[in-house]
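Residues determine shape. We examine one folded chain.
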Amino acid sequence: MKDRLNLLITGAAGFIGFHLSRYFCGEGHRVTGIDSLNDYYDPKLKRARLELLLEHPQFRFESVDICDKPALDKLFTEGNFDIVINLAAQAGVRYSIDKPYKYIDSNLIGFINILEACRHFPVRHLVFASSSSVYGENKKIPFSTDDPTDRPVSLYAATKKANELMAYTYSHLYDIPTTGLRFFTAYGPWGRPDMAYFSFTRNIMEGKPIKLFNHGKMRRDFTYIDDMVQCIGGLITHLGANAYRWPASGDSIRVFNIGNHAPVELLDFVHILEDLIGRKAIVELYPMQDGDVPETYADIGPLKQLLGFSPNTSVRKGLSEFVNWYKEFYEVKVNGA
């Protein structure tokens, strides 16, 4: 990236937002990070991420909720942002069954506030987080961005599909250059405690049972966080070479899968964790849960063709990095080690 960008990253104290903010600061860009620091999971972890970000002179933080339109508009008025990367959202598939209105507020109202801000305070490009969950009951493997995504099986997935439709409309009507990213199961150091790999690690270390649904036959395309960040950085670099627009595409919006293109069965995933931790898991098997899908598998051909790079960190290597971070951050000792 040759020019020094002024970026807004929403959800900057979240897992992906934290890593991405560090990356862009390290590349010499200015980053304004916003976050509501809600209590969906332990805010102490979010604040610990934020403390590290604030060590970068290129980073500044504003406590802003994207649902607060006046505060968001004020931020855009003063910010003069080149690129907006919207990662703020209410996450979690199963949580959406119990707390639907949280998803309407953050994922729909919050997102329309972002779109309206980009419309009235124009930016060079909007990047937003979608999800592999939009593929829902899709039976074709691997999942391609050309596949239909009209059968979501959770409200979370439905809101992410709605984000893509809303972004397409705003891009078409107001010529806002836009990129949507369908993330496939991000994992790694500083990850989210509500994710399976995090709770598996904690419970194995503490000698507590772990629950495997679909009798452990679930397969997930686990994608290491550094690979995700490198892909997003590569996309921004590519866009910079094209005046931050998608050239000759017919539309000013594109959508990409970001996944490892290598699904792993959960039982095998647990065996790797057992080996890295040095303790056997107490496994409890259950039927499929509402809102879940048996497999995710990303077709990353378009991304690889564009960037000449694709995620390739093995699950063993990625989990090793996570387990080491977990032990250090939580000061955990296993089997007296």
